Amino acid sequence: MPSGTDGAPAPDPQGSGPAARRLPERVAAIVSAKDEEERLGATLQALAQISVVDLVVVVDDGSTDGTLRVANLAGVQTVKHQANMGKAQAMTSGAKVVALLEAEEGGTYQSDNPRALLFVDADLQESAVNLDFLCVPVVAGEADMAIATLPPQKTAGGGFGFVVRKAREGIAQLGGRTMVQPLSGMRCITREAFEAALPLATGWGVEVGLTVDVLRNKGRVVEVPVELHHRVTGRGPKAQAHRLKQYRDVARALKVRGRS
Ligand SMILES: O=c1ccn([C@@H]2O[C@H](COP(=O)(O)OP(=O)(O)O[C@H]3O[C@H](CO)[C@@H](O)[C@H](O)[C@H]3O)[C@@H](O)[C@H]2O)c(=O)[nH]1
Ligand SMILES: O=C(O)[C@H](O)COP(=O)(O)O
């Protein structure tokens, strides 16, 4: 069991709470990817090594490079947005594909034992193998959503803390929890908690919106340190433009949910 769970109540296997529901035995990984041909292949190879993950869906979010080709070569399920729609829509599309595939298998998330969803960024490369630790609390029925916290990154960079601070304060006000890494996109979530949080907040507000919604729905949320390494956003003009969009989307997700 990884360390870092943060005071979530212990499971109650006999009770009528979330732990009394049937536990997810399998996990579907959903990889949102926009122009990720360089890193996606290694990420998919790593995911293939996680035994609890038996379904991988790559959502190509309007890439203009060889992202789709790399995904097809890896033999995973794919869906392509013809135009870029943003990360939240990529996650929504991925979850829909999982539901469709499960329906073809003869089940639905309501009636059977649906897979938990593992949201994965495409740029994690070989470090994605460590996401098996993130699935543990959810598969064990100890959490409804587990969010990865990343160690200091190998590559220098990173922002000035504006977006992170906005996100952290907003979640604390609306959801009553102070998150270590409120923007982390690597999350494993039960299907029930995910479906109850739909529709997702748009664009880069998706993580903040999802955290607030799951907390408000009385979901058990844990943060789990996982040895993950991704492409760090730098500090040049393009990176700052990216942060502005993040800030705008985070602020919108919080406002929609009632942040003053
Ligand atoms: O329009 C887009 C843009 C990006 N992505 C994918 O989304 C993931 C995250 O994008 P990235 O460019 O790596 O953003 P970062 O700023 O590095 O992301 C940090 O902050 C985001 C929230 O703002 C979280 O979603 C990420 O998990 C977290 O690493 C990657 O797989 C991208 O390919 C899309 O699917 N659609
Ligand atoms: O680089 C980052 O960590 C994100 O883009 C958030 O930026 P921030 O550190 O300025 O909040």
Number of domains: 1
Q: Which CATH C-level class is it?
A: Alpha Beta
Topology-level CATH name? Spore Coat Polysaccharide Biosynthesis Protein SpsA, Chain A
CATH architecture: Alpha-Beta Complex
State the secondary-structure class. Answer: alpha/beta
Work out the number of β strands: 7
Helix content class: 25-40%
Strand percentage lies at 15-25%
Distance between the termini: 38 Å
Number of helices, where a helix is a run of at least 4 consecutive DSSP H or I residues:
8
Q: Cofactors and ligands present? A: uridine-5'-diphosphate-glucose, 3-phosphoglyceric acid
Strand order of the largest sheet: 3-2-1-4-6-5-7
CATH superfamily: Spore Coat Polysaccharide Biosynthesis Protein SpsA, Chain A
Cofactor: Mg(2+); Mn(2+)
Family: Belongs to the glycosyltransferase 2 family.
GO molecular function: glycosyltransferase activity
Protein name: Glucosyl-3-phosphoglycerate synthase
